[in-house]
Design a protein that fits this description.
alpha/beta; Rossmann fold; 2 domains; seven-stranded parallel beta sheet; six-stranded parallel beta sheet; 16 strands; about 40% helix
């Protein structure tokens, strides 16, 4: 049985045949599904110039059906005519197709698979419509992106009404159920049991180190972080924040520059560090070097997988009550939830974690319990059990792979 997976996360291949992904979360996801199939073929863009480092795909039965590199829809659609034959060839090689959506190539692959009567299952991981109001586009850029979002909304609805669909978190499930689709809720994760730490407390040193892991674009709310550090500094607290993640496109680069400018203006430039991309294999142990995790994200995604990574590392966390986050984070049990866009609420929550050991310790233990319940192995088993039953396919047993 051959599984085809399509997504827009770029890969590259080294001379020895090893497959690599820059960020690492998707590579781990592919590895989790690979044991259930004889072969997995990835239809993904391939870097023209590979990054200096990344995370490898460990499964030996995974190969590439490469697409030309495209960082976004603006680059994809002019290439569509040349991409179509590649998608057709990829679909023909596969017995079952898996699409992570929204993604520019997904609707075209979906229609090819349907025409060839290949079973398809979907995983909805984001919501472009929800993030649209939070992007800084203006003029023609805003108009064009709104048109693209409208097309993606139609495409996602078209697909979810016609194929087995999983959604990352309650908010995405409820959105697509509202137009009549049958949706299975899941929570995307990168965790194995070996990633779960054992420490029982943080914030035991004079300097409090805050970590944020996020791609940089306006929907992530990262502009609040310099203000958070400045407010705590005024209280006499020795606090730093490290931001790990790449800027996404020109708007992300503008957001990164604005964060740095805000830190400089507020007198905390020496306390706000932007690291850029750190591949997952290095990032997972890096979490354990910090005291708190803060993610002030805005609407537009399902459940950020970094929240579970922080829980697994024993990091008490503060995040916003948007999208599907409340279906993972229970306020006061495994994290603290604050309103979207409220600097004051963010400061209050972080202060309470710094000053209240019992609260930190409770959140750490609640986070460990959540992480153990959402490992890759468990998620893959649940997904594949549903796929086998509803798509009528016979899959391999992982222990026989």
């Amino acid at each position: 049985m051959t599984l085809g997976i399509l997504y827009h996360m770029p890969f590259w291949q080294t001379a020895d045949g090893t497959l690599w992904e820059a960020e690492g979360s998707f590579a781990r996801y592919v590895d989790s599904l690979a044991p259930y199939f004889d072969r997995v073929i990835l239809s993904v863009p391939v870097f023209d110039t590979p990054p200096a480092s990344g995370s490898r795909v460990n499964a030996k039965n995974v190969t590439l059906a490469p697409l030309p590199y495209f960082p976004g829809p603006r680059q994809f659609y002019p290439m569509l005519r040349s991409v179509q034959p590649r998608l057709r060839s990829w679909v023909d090689q596969c017995d079952i197709i898996h699409l992570r959506i929204p993604s520019p190539a997904a609707i075209f692959a979906f229609r090819l698979a349907r025409a060839r009567k290949k079973p398809v299952f979907l995983l909805v991981v984001g919501d472009y419509q929800a993030l649209l109001p939070h992007l800084g586009y203006a003029g023609i850029k805003k108009t064009l992106f709104a048109m693209y979002v409208g097309f993606e909304e139609w495409a996602v609805r078209f697909m979810t009404m016609r194929a087995l669909t999983f959604a990352n978190g309650r908010a995405l499930r409820e959105k697509h159920e509202a137009h009549g689709a049958k949706i299975h809720e899941t929570r995307t994760t990168t965790l194995s049991l070996s990633d779960i730490a054992t420490r029982t407390d943080t914030c035991t040193q004079p300097r409090i180190r805050i970590l944020t892991v996020s791609r940089i674009d306006p929907r992530k709310g990262l502009r609040l972080l310099p203000s958070l550090v400045a407010a705590l500094k005024r209280e006499g607290r020795d606090v730093t924040v490290d931001i790990v993640g790449p800027p996404i496109g020109l708007i992300g680069e503008s957001e990164r520059d604005a964060i740095a400018a805000d830190a400089d203006r507020l007198g905390v430039a020496d306390r706000v560090t932007l690291h850029g991309t750190v591949e997952l294999d290095r990032l997972m142990p890096m979490y354990r070097e910090f005291d708190l995790f803060v993610l002030p994200t805005r609407p537009g995604e399902g459940i950020p997988r970094v929240l579970m990574e922080a829980m697994a590392a024993g990091l008490p966390l503060v995040t916003t009550d948007v999208s599907g986050i409340a279906s993972l984070v229970s306020d006061g049990e495994n994290g603290l939830l604050v309103p979207d866009g409220s600097t004051n609420a963010l400061v209050d929550a972080v202060r309470s974690l710094i000053t209240t050991a019992s609260l930190r310790q409770r959140l750490i233990q609640g986070g460990y319990a959540t992480a153990r319940a959402h490992t890759l192995e468990r998620q893959a088993a649940e997904l594949m059990q549903t796929v086998a039953a509803e798509c009528g396919v016979q899959l391999r047993r992982p222990d026989a792979a």
